[in-house]
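Dear colleague,

Thank you for sharing your sequence with our group. We've completed the structure prediction you requested, and as agreed, I am returning the results in plain text so they can be pasted directly into your records. Please verify that the sequence below matches your submission; if there's any discrepancy, let me know and we will rerun it promptly.
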Amino acid sequence: MATRSTRTRSSYHHGDLRAALVGAGAELARTGGPEAIVLREVTRIVGVAPNAVYTHFATLAELKSAVAQHALREMAAAMLSHLAQVEEPADAPGAAEVHLREVGRAYVHFALDQPGLFRIAMDGNPDGVGTPGRGEKQRDFASEDRPKPDTLLIAALRRLTEAGLLPAEETDAAVMASWATVHGLATILLNLQPFRSAAEREAAVDAGLHYLLRGLTSRT
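Please find the predicted structure tokens below.
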């Protein structure tokens, strides 16, 4: 029987090394956050020599950036899974409000359930929004079949607009207000008030999202 190292190395001839390195980095981040991602540990997990990293990543920072993108995709997938279980009311305005509220709840839940991945995903970029024009990898990551958390938020705000609850010209301000609310909730509950019970956390999320929606829709 082939050893794990032999099996792993043989797969790289088919172009899997980059994905394996990113996957190993993501598992380290899952348990230890961004600082747990070190080259020697990543390559030890994958089963290659440390200098193999440089085939795909010039620096540790580049590897961490790729892991952050991976984490954002996991976050978006978790948010979509949560949204798929939400029952929305039949009326368009009510459905739009529920949808936006649950997008926010899913964001905070991911942060609380996966704090290590959340930290690497948001490292230096708390809204999860990529900067336009940052090269091919960024454009590929932003494609429709690989959504990010910000694409889910923008779609939710569009539903508010279509339902007559949010003026279209206020979308940019609404994006900032929404991210400030959910990222603030996640950060406070993770770092400043980790002692809260699950019920207290959920009550805080409910209150924050209630006042966000109230602020976004009060002027229509």
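Summary note from our side: Confidence is low (pLDDT under 50) at residues 1-14, 124-144.

Kind regards,
the structure core
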